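Lab notebook, design round three. We kept the backbone fixed and only want residue identities now. Task for the bench partner: fill in a sequence for the structure below.
Input C-alpha cells:
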C-alpha cells in the first residue's frame, strides 16, 4: 500500500463513521441501495461462430450491405437490420426509458422490432433467438447519451421479453484491445483482429464513395433510374469480390467505367445542399431524418452527405489533439508520464491517420476522382475554434460549426442543413452557436432542423423556404458566369450536345464556383471560345473547325484571310497573325494553327 492509499482509506473510514453518527442522531435507517449491475449473459464464443448470426446496423444501406459481405468473407454470419422506421421509433419509446434522444429510440426499437419479427413471423422461440443471434453495436463512455446505449438496449430487450439477449459492444475509444465479452481462457466469437478491421474499413470507405458518386450523378442523369441501377450492380460486384477475398482495386477500376457510362446533363442548374448534424441523424436514409437526402433531390437539389470516414478521421484527429494536451500528465491510475510511451502512441495515431486518408484517396482515385476528398480536420478545427471549443465532445463536437463555415469559405455548398435529433444535447449546443456563425457569414444559408419522428410537413416546409433561397443563389451564380463569357444558354447547350465526352458522369470540373453547372460552364466556355466562329456566328466543333482548316490548307492556292477587329486578333503579332484592324493572308500552316486554336487562340476566320 502506498502512503496515498493509506491516507485515502483513513479518510474513507472517517467519512463512514461520521455518516453513521449523523444518521444515528437524525434517526435515519441505513439505506438499502440496489445498484444496477450488468446482467450476466451467456458468452459468444468461437465454437458457436458458425451457428450464430451477428446483427448490426445504423449506417446507410450501401455500408450495411458491404460490411455484411466483407465480414462474411472472414467466416462470420452477419445480417444488417433494416433502416429504422417510425415503427421502430414507437417500439423504442414503448420499451425505452423516458427522455432519450431520437437515435436511441430508433436504433433500440429497430433491434426489438427485428427480434419480434423473428419470433412472431418466422416462428423462432425466444430461447432459439437468444441462442442463434447476437447484436453488435458501437459504444462509448459518453459524454452524451451515446454512453447509455448499451443499457438502453438491455432494458428494452428485457421489457420486450428478450432478457439475456446478447449485446456486444465495440467501444470506439478502446479499439481492437477489447475482447468479445469473454474470459481470457476462451476465444471470443468475434476476433477483433487486423483482418476484421481492414475488412470493415474497406467496406465503409467504398460505401462512402458509392453514396457520394450517387448523390453527385443522380441529379444530372439523362435516363432516370440509371444511377440507382449502376449503384445496385456496383454493390453486388464489390460485395462478391469482398466475400471471395479478392483484391478490391481492379474491381473498383472496372466499376469506374460503369459509372462513367451514365449519361449526364451538367447544364442543369441546381443548388448544392450539404447535410450535416448529428452523426446518426444525418447518415440514416429513413424516417429518422424524413428521408432528407432523397426528398431534397426530388425537390431539385444536389445533396452532399458527409462520409462515415470523416467521422473516423475526426476520431483520429481528436485522439492526437488529446495526446498533445496530456503531455506530461500522469495517467488516471497515477502512473508516471512516460515520454517514450506518449511519443509512440502519438506516432502510431499519426501513422494511422495518414494511412486512413491515403487509403480513402486511393479508392477515390480508382473510382475516377469525382467523389469528394475527406475534409481537412485541421482546417475545420481552426475555423470552428473561435466559436466552439474542441474539447467539448459528444455528437459531432466542433465539426458541425466548422463544416458550416468550411462550406461557405471553400464554396462547397449553397445551403447547409443541420439535422439535429430530438433531445440531442451536443447538437443543441452547436445549433446555438450557429446563430453567431450565420451573423458573421451573412452569405451562408443555414437551417437547423429537429427530427422527432413527427412534424414532417412542418419541417419540410421550413426547408423548402430555405431551399428556394439556395435555388435563387445557384441561378444567380450561373447567370453571372454565363454573362462573363458572353454566350447564350442555347450556344452552351449546343456545344455540350455536340461533345459526347462532356456527358460522361465522371467528368470533373474546375472548382471556381459552388454549383456544378457554373463550374461546368467555366470548363466548357474555355473550349468554346476557341471554336466559336464570329463570322458565321456559330459554335464550331473541334472536328468541323479542323476539317475546314485542313481543306483550305490542302487546296492549291487557297488562302485564309484573317479579318481582325478590335475585339479579336493577336495584340502582339508574335504568332504571325494580323494586328487588330488589319487584314492579312495566312499561310496554310497558320490557317491550321488558328483554326485549331494552337496559335494565338483566335477565332476561326476561314473562308
Ligand atoms: S449526439 Fe445527440 S443524438 Fe447522438 S447519441 Fe448523443 S445525445 Fe443522442
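Proposed sequence:
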Amino acid at each position: 500500500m502506498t502512503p496515498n492509499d493509506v491516507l485515502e482509506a483513513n479518510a474513507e473510514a472517517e467519512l463512514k463513521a461520521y455518516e453513521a453518527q449523523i444518521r444515528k442522531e437524525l434517526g435515519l435507517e441505513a439505506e438499502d441501495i440496489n445498484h444496477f449491475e450488468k446482467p450476466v449473459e451467456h458468452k459468444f464464443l468461437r465454437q458457436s461462430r458458425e451457428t450464430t448470426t451477428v446483427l448490426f446496423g445504423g449506417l446507410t444501406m450501401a455500408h450495411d450491405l458491404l460490411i455484411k459481405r466483407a465480414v462474411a468473407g472472414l467466416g462470420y454470419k452477419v445480417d444488417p437490420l433494416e433502416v429504422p422506421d417510425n415503427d421502430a421509433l414507437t417500439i423504442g419509446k414503448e420499451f425505452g426509458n423516458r427522455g432519450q434522444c431520437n437515435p436511441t429510440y430508433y436504433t433500440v426499437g429497430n433491434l426489438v422490432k427485428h427480434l419480434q419479427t423473428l419470433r412472431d413471423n418466422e416462428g423462432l422461440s425466444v430461447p432459439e433467438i437468444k441462442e442463434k443471434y447476437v447484436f453488435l453495436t458501437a459504444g462509448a463512455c459518453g459524454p452524451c447519451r451515446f454512453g447509455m446505449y448499451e443499457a438502453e438496449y438491455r432494458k428494452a430487450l428485457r421489457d420486450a421479453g428478450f432478457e439475456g439477449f446478447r449485446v456486444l459492444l465495440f467501444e470506439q475509444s478502446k479499439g481492437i484491445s477489447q475482447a468479445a465479452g469473454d474470459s481470457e481462457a476462451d476465444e471470443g466469437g468475434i476476433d477483433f483482429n487486423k483482418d476484421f478491421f481492414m475488412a470493415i474499413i474497406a467496406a465503409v470507405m467504398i460505401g462512402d464513395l458509392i453514396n457520394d458518386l450517387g448523390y453527385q450523378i443522380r441529379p444530372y442523369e439523362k435516363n432516370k433510374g440509371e444511377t440507382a441501377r449502376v449503384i445496385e450492380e456496383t454493390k453486388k460486384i464489390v460485395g462478391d469480390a469482398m466475400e471471395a477475398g479478392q483484391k478490391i482495386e481492379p474491381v473498383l477500376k472496372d466499376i469506374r467505367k460503369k459509372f462513367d457510362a451514365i449519361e449526364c446533363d451538367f447544364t442543369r442548374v441546381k443548388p448544392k445542399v450539404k447535410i450535416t448534424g448529428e452523426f446518426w441523424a444525418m447518415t440514416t436514409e429513413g424516417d429518422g431524418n424524413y428521408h432528407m437526402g432523397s426528398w431534397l433531390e426530388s425537390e431539385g437539389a444536389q445533396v452532399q452527405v458527409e462520409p462515415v470516414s470523416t467521422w473516423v478521421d475526426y476520431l483520429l484527429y481528436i485522439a492526437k489533439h488529446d495526446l498533445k494536451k496530456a503531455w506530461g500528465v500522469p495517467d488516471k491510475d497515477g502512473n508516471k508520464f512516460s515520454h517514450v510511451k506518449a511519443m509512440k502512441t502519438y506516432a502510431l495515431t499519426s501513422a494511422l491517420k495518414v494511412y486512413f486518408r491515403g487509403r480513402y484517396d486511393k479508392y477515390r482515385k480508382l473510382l475516377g476522382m469525382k467523389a469528394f476528398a475527406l475534409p481537412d480536420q485541421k482546417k475545420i478545427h481552426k475555423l470552428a475554434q473561435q466559436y466552439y471549443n474542441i474539447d467539448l465532445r459528444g455528437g459531432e463536437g466542433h465539426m458541425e460549426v466548422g463544416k458550416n463555415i468550411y462550406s461557405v469559405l471553400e464554396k462547397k455548398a449553397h445551403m447547409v442543413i443541420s439535422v439535429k435529433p430530438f433531445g440531442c444535447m451536443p447538437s443543441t449546443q452547436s445549433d446555438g452557436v450557429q446563430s453567431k456563425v450565420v451573423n458573421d457569414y451573412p452569405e451562408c444559408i443555414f437551417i437547423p432542423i429537429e427530427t422527432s419522428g413527427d412534424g414532417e410537413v412542418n419541417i419540410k416546409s421550413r426547408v423548402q423556404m430555405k431551399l428556394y433561397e439556395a435555388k435563387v443563389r445557384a441561378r444567380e451564380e450561373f447567370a453571372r458566369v454565363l454573362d462573363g463569357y458572353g454566350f447564350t444558354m442555347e450556344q452552351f447547350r449546343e456545344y455540350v450536345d455536340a461533345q459526347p465526352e462532356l456527358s460522361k458522369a465522371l467528368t470533373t470540373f474546375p472548382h471556381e464556383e459552388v454549383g456544378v453547372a457554373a463550374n461546368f460552364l467555366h470548363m466548357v466556355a474555355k473550349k468554346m471560345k476557341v471554336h466559336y466562329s464570329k463570322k458565321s456566328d456559330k459554335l464550331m466543333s473541334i472536328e468541323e473547325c479542323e476539317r475546314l482548316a485542313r481543306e483550305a490548307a490542302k487546296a492549291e492556292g487557297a488562302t485564309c484571310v484573317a479579318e481582325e477587329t478590335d475585339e479579336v486578333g493577336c495584340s502582339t503579332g508574335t504568332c504571325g497573325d494580323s494586328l487588330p484592324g488589319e487584314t492579312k493572308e495566312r499561310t496554310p500552316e497558320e490557317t491550321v494553327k488558328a483554326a485549331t486554336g494552337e496559335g494565338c487562340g483566335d477565332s476561326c476566320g476561314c473562308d
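Keep this in mind before ordering anything: The first strand starts at residue 53 and ends at 56.
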